[in-house]
């Protein structure tokens, strides 16, 4: 008797449907469009755990695209291979970084001293030292721009930067999907310890993406997203 070939196991169904991400991103980008700011506002993924980890941990999540609207380089001696999309600032800018840098990635020549505090420290963007003598510094900088940190010290809720208000919707969706999967894979007990996921800008409401089965958050998730979408439609009609 011939044996029947074993059937390949079906791929596990994602915990978070892509449709939910698309709806939330669309609603949040529409809200941000009606609430403009001098620099594109960041978009955060809020990860809420059921129980806090026993030990503090840090994990870098890789995103398909940079969640920063701009990249700045603070240096007095510029490299010959400076990319066109990197804006240069003098070393004097470190004393008080311009407001435009507060939403971006700020690369600093490692030969310069980065102030730990002072007038320019509060509210500035992510500041990263870079070795301009390294021939691959630009490539390393772009890799850094696509890496975000998930740090859990105490409590159960943490924010991860996944985009900004000027991103195309499709690009923002890709970043959110990647961040969700990476975050759920690195937290203790993985998806079993994820209570809820939300998408948020600094001044917006938190739009629900996912709620663990049986949690109270699951009841209001669809209604909150639908209300935000409808709010954006009403504002467009008034205009």
Q: Largest beta sheet, briefly?
A: 4 strands, antiparallel
Q: Would you report the number of β strands? A: 10
Query: Helix tally?
Result: 4
- Could you tell me the strand content as a percent range? 15-25%
> Mean pLDDT, as a whole number?
81
- Cα-to-Cα separation, first versus last residue: 74 Å
**What percent of residues adopt helix (DSSP H or I)?**
25-40%
Output the radius of gyration: 21 Å
Class from secondary-structure proportions: alpha/beta
The general outline is globular
**Helix and strand run:** HEEEEEEHEEHEEH
Strand line-up in the sheet with most strands: 8-1-9-10
Q: Which stretches of 5+ consecutive residues score pLDDT under 50?
A: 1-11, 118-123, 218-239
Write a brief structural summary.
The chain has four helices and ten strands, in the order H-E-E-E-E-E-E-H-E-E-H-E-E-H.
Write a structural description.
The protein has 239 residues and is α/β, with parallel strands linked by helices. The protein is 27% helix and 24% strand. It contains 4 helices and 10 strands; from the N terminus they run H-E-E-E-E-E-E-H-E-E-H-E-E-H. The strands form 3 sheets. The chain has a 4-stranded antiparallel beta sheet with strand order 8-1-9-10. The protein has a 4-stranded parallel beta sheet with strand order 4-3-5-6, covered by helices on one side. A hairpin with a 6-residue loop joins strand 9 and strand 10. Helix 1 crosses helix 3. The longest helix has 22 residues. The N terminus and C terminus are likely disordered.
